[in-house]
Design goal:
By secondary structure, the protein is α/β, with parallel strands linked by helices. Helices cover 31% and strands 25% of the residues.
């Protein structure tokens, strides 16, 4: 997810909910944030320094007097775009409200001039204590964003308001202080990418020139916007994307099998893969000798999109059409006949679509006017398509 990185300091307070911030750290990384963990010394009783360093890939210090030559509290504060303190205990909230600087994290908070998100987690009686409520109000009046803890069962066995919020809730709050929009939180996006291959023998195959770059671009964009993403990748040389569930396939039938399994649970299906229309009637084990080549009998592959959409219910479906010219009639006919909601028409006549970093064409939308796409990056197109899918989702 290179190119998306923003620097986040993840401050971790000394509460049992500290272990939940491990998941928060990974999700922040999935969404393209670079994270430095600054734990309080007491929090290391719950999650150790080695865990934070392994997960973040960065050095972790908790005390002002570690690595003093770096002046860590100042250097970290200058580098950060945002600070998230999760969990924030009653003691940590009180110390920040009082302006104390008795560990590295509270020093960083004082030295920083960036948006700060505070995620409290504690026993309900501690949360509702007048001192805590006053300290929270103090932080809010100073511009801190302080989440209310959730209601539920706690480690003590009691039930009340004090639980650490779900990761999705924290990411949604982060969107309020960053330019990152998590408008796909809670949505499941299923994407196909690459080009299928149909074996002729153990060596040769029928294939196409699709690189998978457009499908991978949609996967990156959907992940960055908060979605849960599954990517069915056919024969690409692209690296798997951290945070995306990637299933590798070879043939059209293998792709159909995965689609059949995953489609019911998804909210948006993006069919960016180039699927072979036909396959050899039979596959030879071993290598066919050159002298034995005469002809290859082909049989039609199943129409993946049409087959899957026979079971369409709530899903929004985005299809792709690669044409030898800007054939509007063909695109509109495919949109209608396939039962898709959105279709992107590629004009491949100039030969710079497959394996290219750029694209151009037109987005056709069911019951709406089409949208022309001037030459742009595949990442930009990915977001344009997801924007249209969101409109269809309502």
């Amino acid at each position: 997810m290179q190119g998306f990185n923003r620097e986040v300091i993840l401050g971790v307070g000394g509460g049992i909910a500290a272990y939940k911030s491990c998941d928060l750290l990974r999700r922040l990384q999935d969404h393209g944030f670079a994270v430095t963990v600054v734990p309080t010394p007491s929090s290391l009783n719950f999650v150790g320094k080695a865990t934070w360093e392994a997960l973040s890939g960065r050095a972790v210090t908790a005390d002002v007097f570690e690595n003093v030559e770096e002046v860590r509290h100042v250097s970290l504060a200058k580098k950060a775009d945002f600070i998230i303190i999760a969990p924030a205990t009653a003691d940590l909230i009180a110390r920040i409200a009082a302006g104390r600087a008795d560990d590295l994290l509270t020093n960083v908070v004082l030295a920083a001039d960036v948006p700060i998100l505070v995620v409290p987690a504690m026993h309900p009686q501690m949360w509702n204590d007048p001192a805590t409520l006053a300290n929270v109000e103090t932080l809010r009046t100073r511009g801190f964003i302080v989440l209310d803890p959730e209601i539920g069962a706690l480690t003590s066995g009691d039930v009340g308001q004090g639980r650490f919020p779900e990761t999705a809730t924290i990411l949604q709050a982060l969107s309020e202080i960053s330019d990152r929009t998590f408008d796909l939180l809670g949505k499941k996006i299923l994407i196909t990418a690459g080009g299928t291959r149909e074996p002729i023998d153990s060596v040769r195959f029928i294939g196409n020139q699709s690189s998978g770059k457009q499908g991978f671009a949609v996967a990156r964009s959907a992940l960055r916007r908060g979605a849960t993403v599954t990517l069915i990748a056919a024969n690409t040389n692209l690296s798997d994307i951290d945070g995306v569930t990637t299933v590798h396939v070879q043939s059209a039938q293998e792709m159909l099998d995965v689609l059949t399994k995953e489609f019911e649970q998804c909210d948006v299906l993006v069919m960016a893969a180039a699927v072979a229309d036909a396959r050899p009637e039979s596959v030879v084990v071993g290598k066919i000798r050159k002298s034995d080549y005469g002809s290859i009998n082909l049989v039609e592959n199943p129409d993946l999109l049409k087959t899957i959409l026979a079971n369409k219910s709530h899903q929004v479906v985005i299809a792709f059409a690669a044409e030898g010219s800007h054939d509007v009639a063909a695109a509109e006919a495919k949109l209608s006949s396939k039962g898709a909601d959105i279709l992107y028409l590629n004009d491949i006549s100039h030969g710079d679509i497959f394996n290219s970093e750029t694209t151009y064409g037109e987005i056709f939308i069911k019951d709406c006017a089409s949208v022309k796409v001037a030459k742009t990056t595949k990442d930009t197109l990915a977001n344009q398509l997801l924007d249209q899918a969101l409109l269809k989702l309502g």
